[in-house]
């Protein structure tokens, strides 16, 4: 029996999670599911977005299935109590340093993209983002009185970007190994023409490359990567980058597909334990209406079965079922187009279960 | 008589600059032009990408017209000698803190965009990027042995992101005033859910807003901004952000138009002295072939006349001439399409001169 921590969270989180759970249960696997509050919901019930009981469950579980967190109503809270601290706290506490963010354009949804169909048809890129280092967690950080710079004596805010050699090595190994399983091309994104951290990043990725001679490595500056993703996204295979640049580029890449409601993600530790969540957010504007797309969460559950639970066949059954409901023309509102059938969150979940 | 420092630089720089100079000369304005080497070219002639004579000329001039710098052949040089240090050095030495990066989609070039025509037709956004602060220039930075973090004792690279209150205030004033002259909407982009620097940025922009009640201000996280630019770029009017995020988003926005060869930029100090350069790079792959698009540099010269030299009529004549050559169907290779006439760099410059 493997234990899954189920953390639905805020906004549409509970609705999409209910469908993913339904799909997991339909597979009749040796899994125990345990629920806990997280994010704004947890703040309301216990005063903190990541309460000790939730963290403990996540630590004890074999994998975490995460919905989404956040709502405008928490905007006025101090930063340490805001919903997104739950996700940052889980990444740090569980050591989830390797974030897999696929950007895939499903054949039937090509038209949903902002880009011309020929630029995105068949798009399948994988962004690997380092997730526990960089300016996200670097100390020191805070506010102080500037002693130098343009305006000494004035108040300033500051943060520290930093990466150590072993942190870069381990994410580089993950990325090269992922590229080996795909088209054997890896693009490492940095800003080495400006940043010291990036120069070390580039040096270390280049060194690790010696152990993966079958993978073609290139380096790209982050500003250029933001452009090339728009210009010719299909030229990429696997992209590896730091936490901050990865936050920006993985969202840009996801939006290129036009169907971010379809995209799962995985955040893994050194032993393939992971947290799985849709790439989209908590969408408080449509919460409770029963119209959210549950497929990204359902596909996140599939990633979980494959990466953390060693159940690749069950994962493949979910993926095939999702392909099948798309082929049947079923669409939630976010991916609906003329000539297809608009279904609710629950109807979509039911259809996936039926297809399994 | 006003003095212009003309710095052609590397790659296609000299070719596109020759056309911009031709256009300026055709206008018969009270300007003296003085040339100097910069970037890789300057490194070769005098051992430094920004030699003292070039810096002195730029400091004495009323404005700087800049081509482009950089070539792969300088990749192996130590960072302090690489071509891009010239542009960083000029920004810092001249105090060019306000970077104006318009992303405009010309009617005749809509098809050149990666995006569907309806998403970019008539696009006209202005990204204002702070250019002398942030992690680009923040001290301390370097390599050291980590004393804390995930791997104490290992080598690490680090950089400091920082913004002081007066640095944020002055760029906020520039941005609100620019928005007042346009559609009165300003989006401030930050990562205040994670970064201390961003939280101060957001607080200060909000405070400055009180002085511009006619401008509608909203705040957006950088990852979301990278998505919204792809999803619905026309929803933006003016965007203001820091140096690092602005580097990424302004290039993304420029590429959305599909015709980055058309986009000028201005980098201004507190007294409207400025450096003007095309938004594209030095394109060493096509240097010397006479096929580069000179229009971004020609339009940068127009921006210079308007912003730094108080010659708005002359600027308008250049802009009208560029519209006219496009209407005539003349296109360099980068923007060429079936049914239009392909012209060389020199032919394009000549056509603009003729249209003036
Ligand atoms: C909510 C936020 C802190 C988070 C991040 O920046 O990592 C989110 O944008 C993400 O990408 O998962
Ligand atoms: C060349 C490089 C240092 C520069 C920057 O990052 O600012 C460039 O990308 C730009 O945007 O002008």
TrEMBL record, chains A, B:
Q: What is this protein called?
A: 3-isopropylmalate dehydrogenase
Q: Where does Mg(2+) bind?
A: 223, 247, 251
Cofactors, names only = Mg(2+); Mn(2+)
Family, similarity comment: Belongs to the isocitrate and isopropylmalate dehydrogenases family. LeuB type 1 subfamily.
- Source organism per UniProt: Pelomonas baiyunensis
Its annotated pathway reads: Amino-acid biosynthesis; L-leucine biosynthesis; L-leucine from 3-methyl-2-oxobutanoate: step 3/4
Q: Subunit structure of this entry?
A: Homodimer.
Q: Give GO MF terms, alphabetically.
A: 3-isopropylmalate dehydrogenase activity
Where is the protein localized? Cytoplasm
Q: Tell me its EC number(s), please.
A: 1.1.1.85
Q: Where is this site: Important for catalysis?
A: 136, 191
The free-text function statement in the UniProt record for this protein reads: Catalyzes the oxidation of 3-carboxy-2-hydroxy-4-methylpentanoate (3-isopropylmalate) to 3-carboxy-4-methyl-2-oxopentanoate. The product decarboxylates to 4-methyl-2 oxopentanoate.
A Pfam family annotated for this UniProt entry: Iso_dh
Residue span(s) of domain Isopropylmalate dehydrogenase-like: 3-352
At which positions is NAD(+) bound?
Answer: 281-293
Catalysis: reaction(s): (2R,3S)-3-isopropylmalate + NAD(+) = 4-methyl-2-oxopentanoate + CO2 + NADH
List the InterPro entries: IsoCit/isopropylmalate_DH_CS, IsoPropMal-DH-like_dom, Isopropylmalate_DH
Q: Which UniProt keywords apply?
A: Amino-acid biosynthesis, Branched-chain amino acid biosynthesis, Cytoplasm, Leucine biosynthesis, Magnesium, Manganese, Metal-binding, NAD, Oxidoreductase
Q: What is its main location?
A: cytoplasm
């Amino acid at each position: 029996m493997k234990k899954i921590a189920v953390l639905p969270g805020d906004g549409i989180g509970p609705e999409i999670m209910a469908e993913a759970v339904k799909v997991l249960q339909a597979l009749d696997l040796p899994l125990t599911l345990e629920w806990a509050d997280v994010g704004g919901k947890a703040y309301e019930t216990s005063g903190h977005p990541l309460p000790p009981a939730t963290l403990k469950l996540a630590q004890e579980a074999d994998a975490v299935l995460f919905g989404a967190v956040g709502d405008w109503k928490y905007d006025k809270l101090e930063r340490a109590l805001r919903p997104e601290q739950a996700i940052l706290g889980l990444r740090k506490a569980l050591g989830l340093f390797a974030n897999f963010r696929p950007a895939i354009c499903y054949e039937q949804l090509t038209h949903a993209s902002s880009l011309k169909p020929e630029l995105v048809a068949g798009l399948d890129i994988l962004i690997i983002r380092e997730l526990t280092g960089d300016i996200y967690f670097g100390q020191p950080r805070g506010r102080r009185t500037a002693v130098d710079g343009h305006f000494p004596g004035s108040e300033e805010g500051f943060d520290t970007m930093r990466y150590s050699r072993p942190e870069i090595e381990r994410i580089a190994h993950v990325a090269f190994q992922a590229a080996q399983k795909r088209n054997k091309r890896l693009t490492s994104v940095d800003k080495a023409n400006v940043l010291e951290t990036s120069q070390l990043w580039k040096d270390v990725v280049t060194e690790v490359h010696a152990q993966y001679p079958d993978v073609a490595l290139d380096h790209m500056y982050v500003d250029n990567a933001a452009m090339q993703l728009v210009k010719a996204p299909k030229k990429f295979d696997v992209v590896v980058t730091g936490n901050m640049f990865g936050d920006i580029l993985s969202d840009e890449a996801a939006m290129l597909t036009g169907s971010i409601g379809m995209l799962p993600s995985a955040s893994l530790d050194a032993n393939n334990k992971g947290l799985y969540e849709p790439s989209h957010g908590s969408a408080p504007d449509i919460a409770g209406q029963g119209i959210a797309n549950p497929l990204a969460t359902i596909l996140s559950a599939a990633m979980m079965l494959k990466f953390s639970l060693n159940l690749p066949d069950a994962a493949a059954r979910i993926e095939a079922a999702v392909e099948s409901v798309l082929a049947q023309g079923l669409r939630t509102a976010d991916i609906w187009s003329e000539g297809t059938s608009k279904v609710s969150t629950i109807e979509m979940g039911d259809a996936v279960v039926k297809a399994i």
